[in-house]
Specification:
mainly alpha; transmembrane helix; 76% helix; single chain; 241 residues
Length: 241
């Protein structure tokens, strides 16, 4: 497989999670691959721009054709306008209230509902974790993050500390760092329950960079397909995206 095929598979969500991780690691050190990704994204953007230009041209052609059609009688136009006003008056408010929230808004709603406070069971049998959770729940996120970072310095693979440090980064808007923590958590295969992939997907939805929504959807489908922690929430998010 050449680089462009690999890149297309990555951005199309066709790479398995292990190959996706290897691709992201290579991207950080392989300048040729980085250049190829930049070319791919520019080419895709150009194709999208061309498609929009073609669509605009077709619309302009239809508009000119419609302008040559015999105008509707005044009486008919008044009746049509009255019907439209009636429809808008009855249903307009409902329509605008029912607009689908963006992926970022969905993620933000979920974060506020589920992670504005932490349960104390996350820190049982650990004084350091308990201190960090207490600080987190008191809104002292910077101090909580320092506690979790210190714990990770001593125990780099502690799954609870990775999750908590990731949540602090997520809540404080440091999305790149949160993704690193959750990705490291998601790579641990010996846990009874692992929310890493789900939390990484949630963070990507919140960050909202050009490829984040697609990558988040891929992660959510993996969570659902492999019955991982966060499956029910992932199914709900997938329905709303």
């Amino acid at each position: 497989m050449n680089d462009l095929e690999l890149i297309d598979d990555y951005f199309s969500g066709r790479l398995p999670v292990e190959e996706r991780a290897r691709f992201e690691t290579s991207l950080q050190t392989n300048s040729q691959l980085a250049d190829a990704v930049a070319f791919y994204l520019l080419a895709r953007q150009a194709a999208q721009n061309e498609a929009r230009a073609n669509q605009k041209a077709r619309f302009e052609t239809l508009r000119k054709k419609s302008a040559s059609v015999r105008p509707m009688p005044v009486r008919s136009r008044i009746a049509l306008a009255a019907c439209l006003l009636l429809v808008l008056g009855l249903g307009g408010y409902w329509f605008f209230q029912q607009q689908t929230p963006s992926a970022t808004e969905l993620a933000d709603q979920y974060i506020q509902q589920k992670y504005s406070r932490l349960t104390t069971t996350m820190a049982e049998k650990s004084d350091s974790l308990q201190l960090g959770v207490n600080l987190y729940n008191d809104g002292k996120l910077t101090e909580a993050g320092a506690v979790f970072s210190d714990l990770l310095h001593r125990q780099p693979n502690d799954d609870r500390a990775l999750k908590l440090a990731g949540l602090v980064s997520l809540r404080t808007g440091r999305y790149d760092q949160a993704i690193i923590f959750f990705h490291r958590l998601g790579e641990q295969t010996d846990l009874f329950a692992n929310p890493g992939l789900f939390l990484e997907a949630l963070t990507r939805l919140k960050r909202g960079q050009p490829t984040d929504n697609h990558q988040a959807e891929v992660l959510l489908k993996i969570v659902i397909g492999h019955n991982l922690e966060g499956k029910a929430e992932a199914e709900e998010l997938i329905r709303k995206l």
